[in-house]
């Protein structure tokens, strides 16, 4: 495995290393989509303003329901 390593904090947040944020032009407040593959791979993708991902609302609702249980 290569790449940069970071940690998850007590609130479940992951800090993206500065080099990655600069390289992808990510700024405070930018939205990202998160998905995972069955092999443990996590995918983060920057969302352009005005773009809605198919199923994103449904996924968010499931995540919110699970976290409140």
Automatic annotation (TrEMBL):
One of its GO terms (molecular function) is DNA binding. InterPro entries: SpoVT-AbrB_dom (IPR007159), SpoVT-AbrB_sf (IPR037914). Gene3D superfamilies: 2.10.260.10. NCBIfam families: lp_hng_hel_AbrB (TIGR01439). This is SpoVT-AbrB domain-containing protein.
């Amino acid at each position: 495995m290569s790449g940069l390593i970071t940690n998850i904090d007590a609130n479940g947040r992951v800090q993206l290393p500065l080099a990655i944020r600069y390289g992808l032009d990510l700024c405070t407040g930018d939205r990202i989509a998160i998905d995972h593959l069955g092999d443990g791979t996590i995918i983060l993708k920057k969302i352009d303003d005005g773009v809605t991902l198919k199923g994103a609302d449904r996924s968010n609702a499931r995540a919110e329901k699970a976290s409140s249980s």
